[in-house]
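Sample entry (304 residues):
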Amino acid sequence: MNASKYSALKFLSKLALSLTLLFFIFHYAGFESIYIELMRVKISYLLLSAPLLIFSMIFMAIRWKNIITIFKKKASAANLMKYTLISFAFGLVTPARLGEFIKVKYLSDDTGLSYANSLITILADKIFDVFASFPIMLIGFLFLKKDLLSEYSAFALGICILIFTLSLIYFSKFLKSIKKLLPKKYWKKAEMISFTKPVYIKLLCYSFLIWALYIAQAFFITKALSINASFYMLAAAVPAMAFSSLIPISIGGFGAREAIAIYLFSIAGIPPEKSAAFSILYTFIGLGIPAIIGGFLYAKKKLS
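Predicted structure, serialized as tokens:
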């Protein structure tokens, strides 16, 4: 089997699994019940979540811009935001994370960075996302009052805090240890990268701010659906739903994301139809709207 046929088969299998998961989840929650919840939604609260989406996109572009400066290159935050939105459009309708490769091409064309270094900036962006979202998720799990889950979360959160503390106190040694992990042929290139402690702190701050906006956005969506969810519930659910898209068994986390939402919200006694409705709205606002805007931007760019 050639590579193209294998990729197509892989995509179709993931699509089939996503659709199967969504069918069983919505059947479990009740199609009619979910529809009723969506019809009862309070539009005013959804409108309040819109500015938070805009701000999160702005800060994502600014964080990426700061990562690019490490390579001593400059890029417009407006252009980076445009590339990010276009990547959402491609990521939603194509397999194999093609959206990220679109960002690589646009960044390379815009700044003159090599494809390899452009890809590194995107990987670094994702790493800082994990750096912020993982401890936030652990804090949420810690207060969910599930004994085993809380116990493991407390241990993992302690390790995260220790790593953050040591990386700040021994920043230069931290960089040297990373350099030693690289093959010798890349050492000279690593020395050309201007990665300082202030930049590291700034990137962490932007990352935590972005995830705070995601959680605030989720808060307004729960209010729109008359769901009584605590900060800790949302702190656990929002990153966990995002991590589900990394599981290579479905398209964009569809199906897995809804299952996680239903499970975690059930801990607080929230019925499955409300959890499913929350997942639909959160996905539409957080992924669907940026993808639609990105599609228009891409079409405009191709026609210009």
